[in-house]
Amino acid sequence: MYTALYRKWRPMTFDDVVSQPHITATLSRQVAEGKTAHAYLFTGSRGTGKTTCARILAKAVNCLHPKDGKPCLECEICREADLGTLSDIIEIDGASNTGVDDIRELRESAFYTPERCRYKVYIIDEVHMISPAAFNALLKIMEEPPEHVKFILATTEVHKVPATVISRCQRFDFRRIREEDIVDRLMYIAGQEKIDLDRSAAALIARLSDGAMRDALSLLDQCVAFSDKIDRDAVSNAAGVAGREYLFDILEAVTEGDTPRAMTVIDELYARSKDMSLLCDELLMQMRNLMLIKTVPAKPELISCLDNEAERLKAICDRLSLGEILSRLEVLQSCAEALPRAVSKRTEFEMAIVKLCSVPAAGGYASDTSVLEKRIAKLEQEIEGLRSGAVPKERPRKNEVLPEEPPKPSVKRQEVPAKEPSGSLEPFRRWDEVLDRLTSENPGCAGALNGSEAYVSGEMMYIVVKNEFFLGLFKKPENAASLKKAAFDVTGVNYSIRAKCSKSGQNGAESGKNPVDELIEKAKNADIPVDVE
To answer: What predicted TM-score, i.e. pTM, was given to this entire model?
Structure first.
């Protein structure tokens, strides 16, 4: 029966483990000095050697003739452990034994002494999958285990393991395996298996495996079935990366803002049963490549793609700013998080593509500071103008690029006469529409205008409010500008606005003066277009 390469070439001793010297050296020294812990926690991404090291450690502590803390591989204990027939080394799948009853059974069996070995070793793989109640049942025996028992826990998601369990273990973090180590290991195995493997093909396999030796060996196995001579083309075809033109079609459509083209490609992929979550992950990886090309062009080894893909990515990157790339990365990240919960994954992904095609030229971030500097300079001019009594301009809308112009000299308050009312004073009948518009942009200011009345005379608007709190809000330029803009959006008229609180005019009421009449009289002597009393 054929044995997969990753199983056939699984490391049997610490010397065979690749890219984890900080772990293997520590474990072998502990075994040699007889100072092994009662519980270990191995963490790291898939295919980095967690379960393999757990099995080697279980053999080493029970080996009859260990060599420098490493199993001899020749005694009966080592041979039976390699065959999986040794009853004192128990491997438990955390995903299949999640309940508290499974852990209780483990606790009961742990108190029995080993049959043949020095220690009874429990290897719990994917330990993060067991339930909280099962973790609680495991805590006591992990804290005070029998002298003949050792626990080795392995997980890819250590954040799901309770802190109370982590604190009772010696923790070892497994790193992703370096590409050059994977290449060397693949070339060694290919030589032993008489496989015709180019080193460039091994480098591509190492890059596609993303630091996981098991994935690299599985891909090599797949390539062996695909072709007798394994070169870069054979790896590309066997791994299915040669037919990734659709990714770059979508990227180019997004770069050009061509929504119909992008949606057409997605429709074709969906018709071929392409998984939308996988497609989002692939786009996210290519967008990451664009970010790296833009920020660290001197480090091409950081980019995960083929040579011909790198040229196409470079062409796309030249047409985008860093701000646009980062904005699109944020959209794809949000989409990837939302897809598992989405009712329709296709709709969720298509929404993200529409957003990607609609990212403005300036992006969510500025690739240079020129636009930001202009906006800051403009704001400083407005503030200086307010201090010196100059008339402030309406603030620019979001994403509006300010034109370059020399700062204008400050204007004295007395030099800007107010517009006098033209015609008779009439109730403003579209006041409710203005308030509705203001609610969508500045709800706090709109709420303070509840119960207010408005009157117009030519291009002047007079507001009588009942809430004195509004006067405090209205003194802030941004609130006054919001109100003025809401009135302009509804009517198309750039009104000069005056405001007065009816409660503050009680003395005037006693003298027979109407608050509106007072406001009009004082408006004639006002010196700025937007004022509050």
So the answer is: 0.59
